[in-house]
Amino acid sequence: QVQLVESGGGLVQPGGSLRLSCATSGFFFSAHVMRWYRQPPGKERELVATISNVGGSTDYADSVKGRFTISRDNVKRTVYLQMNSLKPEDTAVYYCARFRQVPRLVDYWGQGTQVTVSS
Fold first, then answer.
1. pLDDT at position 54, please?
2. What is the CA radius of gyration of the chain?
3. What is the pLDDT of residues 19-51, one digit of tens each?
4. To 10 degrees, the CA torsion angle through 69, 70, 74, 78?
5. Burial class of 98 by CB neighbour count within 10 A (0 to 12, 13 to 18, 19+)
6. Which residues are registered as beta bridge partners of 29?
């Protein structure tokens, strides 16, 4: 079955960095667009970053542009989110997601990993 397992979250001071990983199994990874979402406390889930199936195209929310980088390793079946210059407002549960092109929707989610930015 399809599985998405995030790791790498934790507590970090403002200005610090974290690298999230999402290990996948159960599907043809290199055929799928992958996304990272986040859900801040008390708020709705929001899209953070998207990467194309072969990694040649990426897109970011305005709030993270220039600070976050999404990447993937199709051999390791893993997608990453490098987060630099972290701010308290980046505090959220971060979710990895598989995105279908037809129809355009997320069909699988990971369980989430908590990122807390605080001094």
1. 82
2. 13
3. 999 999 999 999 999 999 999 999 999 999 999
4. 110
5. buried
6. none
